[in-house]
Amino acid sequence: MRRLVHAPAPAAVLTALLAAVLGLSASGCSGGDAPGPGSPAASGPAAGAPAAVAVTTVSEVSADEPLRVGVVVTLRSEPGQGQDLVGAAEGATVAAYRLGLGGGRVELEVVDDQGTAEGAGAAVEQLLDAEVAGIVAATRGDHLDAAVEAATAAGTAVLLPYDRDGELPAGAFATGPAAADVDRVLLEAMAGDGLSRPFVLTADDVEVDVGSADAATIGADVDDVAARVAAAHDAGRVDSVVVAAAASTQARMVAALQGVAPAVPVVLSPEALSPAFAAGLDEAAGTTAGAYLSAGTDAGDATSLAQGARAEAVSAFFAALRLAAGDDASTDLFGDAAFAEVAADADTASHDAVLSIAAAARAAGSVETADVLSALSGLQAGPAEGLAGPGLDFGGERALPAADVVALRATGQDPGARPVAAGAGPRLYWFADDTTG
């Protein structure tokens, strides 16, 4: 188990860091043409007073004892069991960094569950022994089921930012889109595009319910499946293809489709939002230069170019990410590399899950496990608590409101919100489709 500690920054360091953020804020977008990738305007928050980068949520309650947050990740797994999310989980590092800037004492207890039920059980047992205030399961898959049950039975809150399916035990909260909301949004967006007869391809226990004119399971030979889709499209039986699978599987399938059916509209389950999808396309000799539709929240790189409260909240996340990437003392979750090397993959979902646990600790006035769980149940968290994405309502097991799940389109144009590591491959950036909903 890796213990990543974020202690309060010395006053001089904190002053310098915040001055750097304010300098970035002054170059925020103020209308007119959209800034080009890498321009100063593309890197700053939206116009208006910048959102706070330092988060002071636990500065008082962690004065005597640090806030310990467990983070479960999956370094290696079968497709669909979380491996594609290990980079996204680095958003937890950004959350801890922001809490540290705000004067909080935060420890991330990071454990690899190895993508198996046994590994997940062992990971949770380690975190329970460490007496963490709450657990962020920054992975997905049915290998987590028994471990989540064990954690909540022991009185420890579990937040799942990437879970869509199934019922959760009391004390567990999904902070990402529900499966039904993903299905609804995809259907609405497809209807808006005039698509009603999809060829639905599934694998890795990932599914979407959008109807189908034909269907198949993605196996080892994606070329055969792609040929079936092309033939059905040429015959007029289908008007689109929906690929629901782990990001790496989606990439192999889409690359094969590009070779034989490049004109078929492609709809993707939210697994494609992972940077692993674009990386997989590149590895499979595919191209990111396609028109892709998916569903998720409006809390990505492109959101920082807009104006309003949401854009400012997202911009604060990216300002903190850039500061962490420029801090020589900041490492990845396991301490194996500089944070700058993984900053390109960190997302807001894992970040917001950590900050939600911190908000519960503040509401409880305590970092003790039972107190945090009690305060989390019914808590409402949003920008005031430092969240970058939509507000979360912990009155039920699905904390993300249905209205905040939106259609997303992809672009290869970099909004310039985060630093790019040397040798980084192609990437897709997802933005909300304001013509739907």
TrEMBL record:
Record's keyword terms, sorted: Signal
InterPro entries: Leu-bd (IPR028081), Peripla_BP_I (IPR028082)
Lineage: Bacteria, Bacillati, Actinomycetota, Actinomycetes, Propionibacteriales
Protein name per Swiss-Prot or TrEMBL: Leucine-binding protein domain-containing protein
Coiled-coil features, chain-numbered ranges: none
Family: Belongs to the leucine-binding protein family.
PROSITE patterns the UniProt entry points to: PROKAR_LIPOPROTEIN
Signal peptide stretch: 1-26
Domain Leucine-binding protein: 66-391
Domain of life: Bacteria
